[in-house]
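Re: that chain you flagged

S.,

Sorry for the slow reply, it's been a week of failed gels. I finally had a moment to sit down with the sequence you sent. For the record, here it is as I used it:
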Amino acid sequence: MAEHLSQSELDYPFKLLEYFNGFRVSKVIFSACELGVFDLLLKSQKPLSAECVAGELGASVDGMERLLDVLVGIEILEVETIDGTAVYSSTDVANLYLAKGSAKSLHDMIIYQSQTIYPLWNNMVDAVREGKNQNEKTFGLPAEDIFQAIYRSEEEMLKFMGLMNSSWVLDGHDIVTAFNLSCFNSIVDLGGCSGALAREMAKAYPSSSVTVFDLPQVVETAQKHFSEDDDTIGFQAGDFFSGEIPPADLYVLARIIHDWNEEKCLKLLKKIYDSCQPGGGVLLVEALLFENRRGPVLAQIFSLNMLVQTEGREQPASQYCSMLTRTGFTGVQVCRTGKSYDAILAVR
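Prediction finished late last night. Pasting the structure tokens below so you have them in one place:
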């Protein structure tokens, strides 16, 4: 914006005001999801009035009408007037991504953003001043053990796993097809959480065996809440930092490296390198920053989130490539998907 300010923007800061109010727009969507607005409208066979929606969801008519009108304004809902009464209906985007029942639903991602990320970001000033995460100030939990905070209860674990599941339902196919991985007969997704990315991997490469390796409580919860009838993936419990990792031709680290400081990352990558046979490899999945520090904005925002929630950060491709080569890997390839997450493949 700074290099291309028009005179109209200098006369009146439209873009700045849009940015200032961004958190309000987010909270409108979060609140509608938490209230069940999109689920109700999806199930309805006809447009509903604010009074009807409020009655079904146990809300005030005045408050619901205001919420619905903003959702119309940001083009997530539609409105029409029938017999003098405004009635609301969902757009295709709302039905596809915001209602729980859709195969591409981002509902779990939104709930996690609202109930976990939003409170953390209230302490962003302290995170910047202190240079450390705000789990203690926000949730009363030790800043040093980030997954004790993330998995602080079964409910919170399910929220986080729902977030990850939504992420890979949305971006997983682009990630697993960024490179041709058919030459790897056995694939282990380290920290694979709900198994959503592993399922995309198994669909793309049906002749490969795909296993999720994660903490025992995560594996138990994944099998209980996220398993599918036609699952072809396996699960194995363990800790990739403190224990042994299973043998594999390809190891996947999807949104893992960005959680930790460089020392831990190098330790983990060296362990993976030592476990690889010649020709084996590792696939890193992260939101890559541009080398010139000019974006992508989403990756820059993710990096701030790593500050406020973890002990890591997002990096440009050069930094990941450096870590891989320092731990012995060669033939590093980078693929920017144009979506939220990118892929880096390296071999031994």
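What I noticed first: The mean pLDDT is 96.

Talk soon,
D.
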